[in-house]
Amino acid sequence: MASDDSSRWFGRGRRLLKCFAAVVLLFLPGCGLNGPTSTFQELGQNANTRGFGRQFPQDPNENAFTFGVGDSLVVAVAGTPEFSGGHVIRSDGAITMPLVNDLIAAGLTTEQLATKLEMLLALYVRDPQVTVSVGKVVSKAFYVSGQNPATGGTVVKRVSYVGDITVFDAWVQMGSPSSLLDDEKHLRVIRGDAREPTVYVINMAEMYKDGLMGGNIQIRPDDIIFVPPTIVGHLNTFIAGISLPFESLFRVSRAIIELDTSIRIIQGDATFRRGSYGAY
Q: Alpha-carbon distance 189 to 222, whole Å?
């Protein structure tokens, strides 16, 4: 009798251990098992050493608009319509023009591109007068991030950069986060850099409550706007981190039960049909 009891308790212990191991495995992906962040030395030539890491970065000392991949532009050469027309910058950063062939346009301002074209066209046209204008812009964007109230995790969205936009404009465009989860008094505007990013802490509440617009700075392409969580937001993250794995287990268990029920119904219906046929 004692042997049966010990076997029964041993079996229960094994099942509990298996359940504990399953729960631990669910948590492991977030426990840093993938190792530390790669260093500059490890990344070698692939390491980003400037700005946001674009292939055609803008001069950090230049605030003017620069073209990027996918942007469209219009070239007008006075008196020579054969050189005039619209262009879309290809993935290699270049456009193609008659006689000039391929030339890099990405990373240049309208003035820089016009000057470059005037130098190249001078071989074919006497004193060329070139004007470059901006068409549709798709390459420029900034990023906004905040807490997902359902999961407690961070959501990051890409927002097209259309030009003259301030942090208040961007904040309103985000949907004006003002719930208990969002700390709108410590919104951050982050300008990424490989080694020395710039971070501005902005009090949005001062703007919409008191009209104090000193922190309503201009947003630049590749800026990251981060709305940090409040204490309640941190608590929401903690609770979600604990509950989500168990919710996954509950969903799997429920699916298994529903599948088992469906199979039993089908089997019961088949048995009923066989019984019915046997009655004839």
A: 10
Q: Contact, 118 vs 103, CB < 8 A?
A: no
Task: Tell me how far CA of residue 34 lies from CA of 2, 37, 218, in angstroms.
Answer: 47, 9, 38
**What's the rounded Cα separation, in Å, for the pair 90 and 58?**
17
pLDDT along the chain (280 residues), means of 10: 54 55 48 64 78 71 81 92 92 91 92 93 90 91 80 80 85 72 79 86 85 85 85 60 57 62 65 52
Tell me which H or E stretch contains 132: strand 130-134
The domain 47-138 is placed in CATH, from the list 3.30.1950.10, 3.40.50.300, 3.40.50.620, 3.40.190.170, at: 3.30.1950.10
- Would you state the CATH architecture of domain 141-233? Roll (3.10)
CA 10 to mean position of chain CA atoms: 49
Q: What is the dihedral of CA 78, 84, 86, 88, to 10 degrees?
A: -110
